[in-house]
Amino acid sequence: MRVGLGHDTHRLGEGRPLILGGVSIPHDRGLIGHSDADVVLHAVSDALLGAAALGDIGEHYPDTDPQWKGVDSARLLSEVVGLVARAGWSPVNCDLTIHAQSPKLLSFKPAIKASVARLLGLDEGAVNIKAKTGEHVGPIGRAEAIGCDAVILIEQNKVLT
Ligand code: MG
Q: In angstroms, what is the span from residue 125 Cα to ligand 1's centroid?
């Protein structure tokens, strides 16, 4: 077994959709980035790469490459799952903390959980979503940004062993 840690933060801005964990969330602002700026799936992707000792998403999918402009992060995570599987590993469980002052994420947690579980090929019981505000301090607390921390456990791929 191996464990991996991922983190991401993106700025909030007007005229962008808000997508968290592959789920579109109604909000007056969205996250700014080269891709769809889905902090949740970026943190999950990095945690997975970290667990398999395969670097980070910036190395594999550089934001200077036009190929990844506006890319659906669900596609990016699917690519990472494939990369990690070819290295001989499968996800076991995933624990996430999303840091957002607004919008309130409570009612979106089940959809985010289902989406992350589907992308990782896990049962929903193996994925946990926590949401924290920034207590009105710092860039997250002032609702200038949204962040996410992810921890993933992987095990040696049973198909290959
Ligand atoms: Mg990112």
A: 26
